[in-house]
Amino acid sequence: MEMIGGDDTDTEMYGALVTAQSLRLRHLHHCRENQCTSVLVKYIQAPVHLVWSLVRRFDQPQKYKPFISRCTVNGDPEIGCLREVNVKSGLPATTSTERLEQLDDEEHILGINIIGGDHRLKNYSSILTVHPEMIDGRSGTMVIESFVVDVPQGNTKDDTCYFVESLIKCNLKSLASVSERLAAQDITSSIATFCNTSNGYREENHTETNL
């Protein structure tokens, strides 16, 4: 398991407990001899509802995944539906067919299987969960993503895990960047609304006083 971000000791200790519990309850993969598996954790300085609003969009992964250029879903995103993903140049793939296996808005769980495409990630299955976390005294989020995948012929387990982990790290880094930017915009908007309301209240009181 690899931790990404989160330098505060108390946060890491609490996060480790949540991570262990979540792994035991939600991140269960049956890893066969010819497969590899791993878990990554990312701390994000944005509230959990905001992060989840991006993660849950099975039909719009390009909102935060930098390697996806286009996504097509037939019908409403629901358990069992498929999405066709176009991958940007620079990766050893151009398309991917993926099935939605889990989508739990209460527990914040997203499960996806890759079932086709011109790539080498055969029998790839991932589970992503998001958890509320206090970071530097503010409401933040801990994201846990785990996966299991076949080891392609000619590759080692270490090589395969390193490649997949690198992709996930890029996705989680981008998720953090987008989420934190949106969180900052929300704060700025709230401050502006408060200031406008306060100014209007003062002007109204001033007018009444003059009368």
- Overall spatial form: globular
Mean pLDDT over all positions: 85
Helix and strand run = EHEHEEEEEEH
Number of DSSP strands?
8
State the share of residues found in helices, binned by percent: 25-40%
Q: Could you tell me how far the N terminus lies from the C terminus, measured between alpha carbons in angstroms?
A: 69 Å
Rg measurement, Å: 21 Å
Kindly report the spatial arrangement of strands forming the biggest sheet. 1-2-8-7-6-5-4-3
Largest sheet composition: 8 strands, mixed
Query: What is the structural class?
Result: alpha+beta
Report the portion of residues in β strands: 25-35%
**Helical stretch tally:** 3
Question: Which ranges are low-confidence, i.e. pLDDT below 50, for 5 or more consecutive residues?
Answer: 6-14
List keywords for this structure.
alpha+beta, 8 strands, 211 residues, 8-stranded mixed sheet
Question: Could you explain the architecture of this structure?
Answer:
The protein is α+β, with helices and mostly antiparallel strands and 211 residues long. It contains three helices and eight strands, in the order E-H-E-H-E-E-E-E-E-E-H. It has helices spanning 9-25, 48-55, 157-210, and strands spanning 2-4, 35-44, 68-73, 82-87, 95-104, 109-117, 124-135, 138-150. Strands 1-2-8-7-6-5-4-3 form an eight-stranded mixed beta sheet, sandwiched between helices. Helix 2 (48-55) crosses helix 3 (157-210). The chain is globular, with a radius of gyration of 21 Å. The model is unreliable at 6-14 (pLDDT under 50).
